[in-house]
From TrEMBL:
Protein family per UniProt: Belongs to the Cob(I)alamin adenosyltransferase family.
Domain of life: Bacteria
Keyword line: ATP-binding, Cobalamin biosynthesis, Nucleotide-binding, Transferase
Descriptive protein name: Corrinoid adenosyltransferase
UniProt subunit comment: Homotrimer.
InterPro entries: CblAdoTrfase-like, CblAdoTrfase-like_sf, PduO-typ
Species this protein is from: Alteribacter lacisalsi
PANTHER family: CORRINOID ADENOSYLTRANSFERASE (PTHR12213), CORRINOID ADENOSYLTRANSFERASE MMAB (PTHR12213:SF0)
Keyword Nucleotide-binding annotated: yes
Enzyme class: transferase
Annotated pathway: Cofactor biosynthesis; adenosylcobalamin biosynthesis; adenosylcobalamin from cob(II)yrinate a,c-diamide: step 2/7
Domain spans labelled Cobalamin adenosyltransferase-like: 3-166
Enzyme Commission designation: 2.5.1.17
Length: 185
């Protein structure tokens, strides 16, 4: 089997249910989710032992969930059965609460960085925010379940909390944004 089909050479691709332009809003959305998944893979390999097995396992599970979410974004069939569930978001929220309690308290924005893994997680966070914007744009034109948007929104929060806890566990202090007012109260 060859990896190339030559069917995309005219700027079209397949969603599950119809053929669309490669710059279709759904394609933009799931393409950004795919990019996010790749950056998460990069973050996983940069994690040290001190960062914790829990973060590595969660990120690997998130990668699986992002494939589900991408498939959901690509599905335009009538009455599709979506894979992205509220349970995914609930798991993220529990991890966020755990990491937020473990890392030192902050009240201001922090500069992205610290350890390599934390810096990678901050990149993931910003790509998740872009994916969120792409999903919102697609939702304005298409019927997309709200669970997808909710998950990606919470995922960016998770990535922020994970970056902070990784820095803490690896002995790196967050660098506070000096011109920030109190944002975390």
């Amino acid at each position: 089997m060859k990896i190339y089909t030559k069917k995309g050479d005219q700027g079209k691709t397949h969603l599950i249910g119809r053929r669309v332009a490669k710059n279709h809003l759904r394609v933009e959305a799931y393409g950004t989710v795919d990019e996010l998944n790749s950056f998460i893979g990069k973050a996983v390999v940069s994690l040290t032992e001190q960062a914790g097995k829990d973060v590595r396992e969660e990120l690997t599970e998130i990668q699986q969930q992002l494939f589900d979410l991408g498939a959901d974004l690509a599905n335009v069939t009538e009455n599709p059965e979506y894979k992205t569930k509220d349970a995914y978001t609930e798991i993220l929220e529990k991890a966020i609460d755990t990491y937020w309690a473990e890392a030192p308290e902050i009240k201001t924005f922090v500069l992205p960085g610290g350890s390599q893994a934390a810096a990678d997680l901050h990149v993931c966070r910003t790509v998740a925010r872009r994916a969120e914007r792409n999903i919102i744009a697609a939702m304005e034109e298409e019927d997309i379940p709200s669970e997808i948007l909710k998950y990606v929104n919470r995922l960016s929060d998770y990535l922020f909390a994970a970056a902070r806890v990784v820095n803490f566990r690896e002995g790196h202090k967050d660098v506070l944004y000096r011109s920030s007012g109190d944002v975390f109260k």
